[in-house]
Amino acid sequence: MVVSIATLLIIAGVIGLLLALLYKLKAKEFSFRIALVILVAGFLGSFLLQDCIVGRAVIVEGENPSYTHREVLFYGCPDIELADGTVVDTKQLGFKMGKVYCINGTDTPLLVYPTIYSTSETASVEEPDAVLVYEWCYEELEEEPDYYFTTPPQTIQVSQEWWERFIDKSYVKWTLISYDDI
Questions:
Q1: What proportions of the chain, in percent to the nearest 5, are helix, strand and coil?
Q2: Please, which residues have CB within 8 angstroms of residue 33's CB and are 6 or more apart in sequence?
Q3: How far is CA 180 from CA 109, 135, 174, in A?
Q4: In 67-160, where does DSSP find H-type helix?
Q5: Is 105 helix (H, G, I), strand (E, B) or coil?
Q6: How far apart are CA 72 and CA 66, in angstroms?
Q7: pLDDT cut 90: percent of the chain above it
Q8: Cα dihedral: 52, 113, 176, 143 (round 10)
Q9: d(Cα 165, Cα 39) in Å, to the nearest integer?
Q10: Which one of 21, 60, 70, 110 is most buried, counting C-beta atoms within 10 A?
């Protein structure tokens, strides 16, 4: 089943509300503050749980140089419709819950590669492998891309806690580009 982020929020809200109502029915002494805490905790907990188990597919469509991409959230094995009307039956693809996939609906291979940013010259991190997604195929990705069809910036700005300024830290950002543009 293909879902939207709004659906996830509504489900989380209903679960939080049901937990708060259950508290109201079962509590000997009702407290509005406790009910509110239960509502918010139930909402956040169920939303985070759903976010962990929902699958993600980044679908790339179009022709060079006007590629488009969109993210699809799903449970189970949904039928995903591409822009040209083609329906991808994911039952045969073996998509797993909680994973990120790239579906290449173009005539060009796509490259998803990491760029490592560091807070110092001495910080070291094991560079993840790049992923080549052939035309009209799919691949599982480690992370959803941060940059699409563009060269990543030389530097990035991240907010850090005060104590993180004293340690060497590395950040990995993923870029998706056309393999023919390399």
A1: 30, 30, 40
A2: none
A3: 7, 11, 18
A4: none
A5: coil
A6: 20
A7: 48
A8: 0
A9: 36
A10: 110
DSSP string, 121-145: SS---PPPPPEEE-TT-EEEESS--
Give the chain's count of helices (H) and strands (E): 2, 11
Tens of pLDDT, residue by residue over 138-167, are 999 999 999 999 989 988 887 777 776 677
Specify the pLDDT at position 34: 92
- Say if CB 87 and CB 70 are below 8 A apart: no
* Cβ neighbours around 58 below 10 Å, total: 22
- On whether the pTM is more than 0.70, the answer is yes
Q: Return the amino acid letter for 66.
A: S
54 touches 78 (CB < 8 A): no
What tokens appear for 111 in the block? 């490259």
Cα distance between residue 92 and residue 80, in whole Å: 12
Q: What is the mean pLDDT of residues 97-108?
A: 91
